[in-house]
Amino acid sequence: MDASLSQRINLLAESETLAMSRVSRELSAKGFDVINLSVGEPDFNTPDNIKAAAIEAINDNFTHYPPVSGIPELRQAICRKFKRDNNLDYKPENIVVSTGAKQSIYNTIMCLINPGDEVIIPCPYWVSYKEIVKLAEGKAVYIDAPIEQNFKITPQQLESAITDKTKTIIYSSPCNPSGSVYTKNELESLALVLKKYPDIFIISDEIYENIIFSGSHYSIANFDYLKDRVIIVNGVSKGFAMTGWRLGYIAAPVFIAKACDKLQGQVTSGANSITQKAAVVALDTNPTTSSDIQNMVSAFKERRDMALKLLNQIPGLITNTPQGAFYILPDVSYYYGKKAENKIIENGQVLCDYLLQNYYIALVPGQAFGSPKTVRLSYATSMAKLIEAIDRLKKGLDNLK
Predict the structure, then answer these.
(1) Which of 2, 85, 244, 312 is most buried by a 10 A CB count?
(2) Residue 112: is it exposed, middle or buried by C-beta count within 10 angstroms (0-12/13-18/19+)?
């Protein structure tokens, strides 16, 4: 039946993170004790005051079609959030609310990219970036940032990647999958390169903004000479433990916001009305004074430190210290070419399959993120499960000869 499907969908890859989660669920359903470290979501519950706002909205029958770009009070709350947390001034006309940050990214790329336009993507990258560019018939141009660079590109690399066909760059900070965070000085060095190319737009994925372990988040939109070319993507899923609520948003130049509104109006229309009411309460929460957010971040930091301590005891693994999100991306290439019985570990995909089928731990191969020497480990799970999972990882790697 594949021949009956469009070339567009046949060329589209399945999300590797979702694929690993699917296989993990299938093994669990068969009774195996799988520890899933492939999942990219907080293992915390949505704060009670946010849930209460949703219940109130249901009881008030706030269940009709919302405006495509979001209800006015939510767009205003997003503007207040940008001013409070980022010292950025936006108006509601700059804001488009969508069904998750993934749709926000999709809208933006589909509205900006023509066939053949180049999109610069630093590696490692979130899995959906390249596939969305593919759907838009753009050309992804990758910049490799290895672990020795803390998975962050340099201004020299950026300059070398720019051509007369470059339309956009997209990156995340804090980064999924590496947890790396660009400092203000590092962003400024990149911003000064982009300043020389006024036709390039910058998509800044800031969905992990609230999960930073040292220092503070800084947005590339804070450089005035770039702001009118920056599209900030954010949402409530990670910082407020609201993954299933499905709400993301952009802050963008008005003409891009209007284009995204037009596209979204033909695809999904407005995001869930109840979620939007709950998101107003979430975004009016100051993350620096919220005990819910700070307790979550403290727990993630404690888990990160424990995971690194245990991983660094495994021969051959190379790690860095991620400063945000809830991922570690160790270099596991030391084990490539080794064997378990008759199975040769040719790459990260084979390694992850081996570990899942034999030791019941689910990781994501780094090649899914453009980082083939690595695997991604999420520590968004309990400390007990994390310790057990890394013990299984060590046993699995020790068995390779």
Answers:
(1) 85
(2) buried
